[in-house]
Amino acid sequence: MVNLIPHSQALIRAGDQPGDLGAVAAMHGVLYCREQGMDQTVEAYIAGGLADLVTARARDGDEAGRLWVAEAGGRLVGSIGITRATDDAAQLRWFLVDPSQQGRGLGRRLLDTTLGYTRSRGFRSVFLWTIAGLARAHHLYSQAGFTLTESRRVRQWGIDVVEERFDLDLAAAQRSEHAPSRASTTGGAR
Fold it and tell me: Are strands 89-97 and 125-131 parallel, antiparallel or unpaired?
């Protein structure tokens, strides 16, 4: 039986404690193997990216990006990160929520945390790479304003997948949040 923990009890914190990198890589490896049939190379890919982030943070500090993890019941139940791709663009990475916590608001909280960071750092855009078929994650991306900009078939991590790129223009998103309402003064829809 899966132990469900309310999302209000899940703590999101910086992923900078000993063991966090390994736990994030392991969570990705185990879940993607079980749910998507991927092989161990996906875990190695995740571990390599996390190692690159730590090295960049040692050199450049918080400007290089961040990793956040979610904990509940004494175990890691989610992760998300952001890395600087260019001076204006950030890449969203390592977004994963344990199946026992999906549908409980934790994914939205992780995504909101990361997008708040990108805005505070002055990034103009955010992009991410994912695979087709992850409906819950794709729904969260769409709700946050991301749009699908590229799709391609590849063989990677031991399986054939459709890799997808999503982009978010933070400047445009901010303009639309502050734009005056276009509703008719009579209250009718056009």
Answer: parallel
